[in-house]
Amino acid sequence: MDAAFSEYFDSNQTKPSLSGFVNGYLSAIENVEFNSDCLNFKTVKSTVIQAFNDFCSKRGVTDAVIDKHYVDWDSLTKHLNELYQRRHVVDDVQVIRSQVIEELSVGKALPSVPTPPPSLPFLDSGIIRNMRKQLRSAKKDKSLSDMDLTKHGIFDMVSYPNKGTVTILGEHMRLWCQILKHNSLEPCDEALDARKFAKLVLITLYTVKNNTPKLLKEIIKASKDISTSTVEKVTRKILKVYCNQFRANGTNRLEMERSEGDYGASFVYPLFFHLFEDTSFDLLWGEVKLIASKQYDDVSLCDEDRRSSGANVDGKVMSSCGFEICVIEISRAPAVADYNHYLGDRFKIALNLKKMLKAIVKKHPFADKSLIPNIKMIGIQLYRHQMSVYCLSMPVWGIYAFELVKIITLPTNIDHCAIPASQLAYMLFVVKDILTKTQDAMEKFATDYDSLSDEDNSVTESNEPSPKTKRQKTWTM
């Protein structure tokens, strides 16, 4: 940079200035070796000013103007950083190129690209076969409770510790949990946006004392002006469903005694109606029959036997291809505490989800088995003022896992509804995202053919009744 300084001082007829040099000799500054790879304006500023002062002292210049405030140091720093990054890329390419040429010239084999380690935790096929065998034998194990899901071929990861699940998995429990974690889904952007918007709308309630249903209604009504995206509009409708539970006199219908049917029709059903409105999913409500349960139960019947009507569920969601992929159960009204009923409904949800997944697999027996872990059946249970979301999947071919996605507290009191309401909106969009990805996986599962599908049909052999035929009586004279 000394040559640039000399040229500038020799050609300048007036007082030399710092800003004049920086603006006229940028190329000289570009070649300066700074002490840091990532520059900031302080480093650039101090280095350039110090170099300018040193040269002035060397030349004996005493009237130079250090007008540092007339230099755009931010723009200069940004320009130098971009220049340094381009130089580093070029240098790296040259180094790699020279290494490759050198290795080829001496006849060395190029280093092979290292293969990444398998992202999915590995279970030996022998261990998997043993798990299937033990799941089949658990059906006759009298030491297990009738409510133990392993008697129905399902690993129960919800009610832990579970005797049947812990006994069968044994030392492989941790590895099995890693497999389930690998297959879990990350929160989607829609769910995060819904939670953020709900908090933004309800944040006013924290700054006002004596909140009233009228104020809540006005806040949600005013949010119409800021709700632009589809997610925000649906979130606003979800908040409006909660707002409608309050009467003008301040009565909170969520906390009063009411029937299960009234609670479902006025609060639960509208939530899911708005969630699945204008989507490819079909929401059926009101003690609907489960088709997968009916088909499963009818397998063990003879031709002349009465057909099963199927299990009753409060609500279910159908995919665009006609399969049941989600069930909704309300375990009594919020004011009624019945824990045994809650456990019974959870057990019922797990069995029904397995039947639903079996129906999908049996419909496409030659599909690619590697896609089955991406198909997840969802169960939603409402008990007291909580909503539990469950998931049943087949992480390993022929082995079912029932796990808890999340439990959230539903909003009740107006003064403290912002966080529960935002969590409710978040969880509903998480459910929608899981079902959307499941539907996409089902479409791919139905079209991809697995040439090795005849190798293992354990998914249809395990814990499934075989059709019965009655023997014809023979009469002898």
Identify the notable features of this structure and list them briefly.
11% strand, disordered C terminus, 3 domains, elongated, seven-stranded mixed sheet, 16 helices, 477 residues, alpha/beta, 48% helix
Structure notes:
The chain has helices at residues 2-11, 18-24, 26-30, 41-59, 73-105, 125-137, 163-169, 173-183, 189-202, 213-222, 230-243, 260-276, 291-298, 339-363, 418-447, 458-461, and strands at 154-156, 282-289, 312-318, 324-330, 377-383, 386-396, 399-409. It is α/β, with parallel strands linked by helices and 477 residues long. The chain folds into 3 domains: 2-105, no CATH class; 125-183, no CATH class; 189-461, no CATH class. A 7-stranded mixed β-sheet has the order 1-7-6-5-4-3-2, with helices on both faces. β6 (386-396) and β7 form a beta hairpin. α11 (230-243) packs antiparallel against α12 (260-276). It is elongated. Mean pLDDT is 79; it is low at 107-119, 303-309 and 451-477.
β-strand number = 7
Largest sheet: 7 strands, mixed
Helix % is 40-55%
| Rg from Cα | 34 Å
**Low-confidence runs (pLDDT<50, min 5 residues)?**
107-119, 303-309, 451-477
When the domains are counted, the total is 3
- How far apart are the termini? 123 Å
Q: How are strands sequenced across the largest beta sheet?
A: 1-7-6-5-4-3-2
Determine the mean pLDDT: 79
Class inferred from helices and paired strands = alpha/beta
Share of β-strand residues: 5-15%
Q: What's the number of helices? A: 16
Please trace the helix and strand order, writing H or E for each element: HHHHHHEHHHHHHEHEEHEEEHH
Described by the principal axes of the CA atoms, the overall outline is elongated
Biased composition (Basic residues): 468-477
Region (Disordered): 450-477
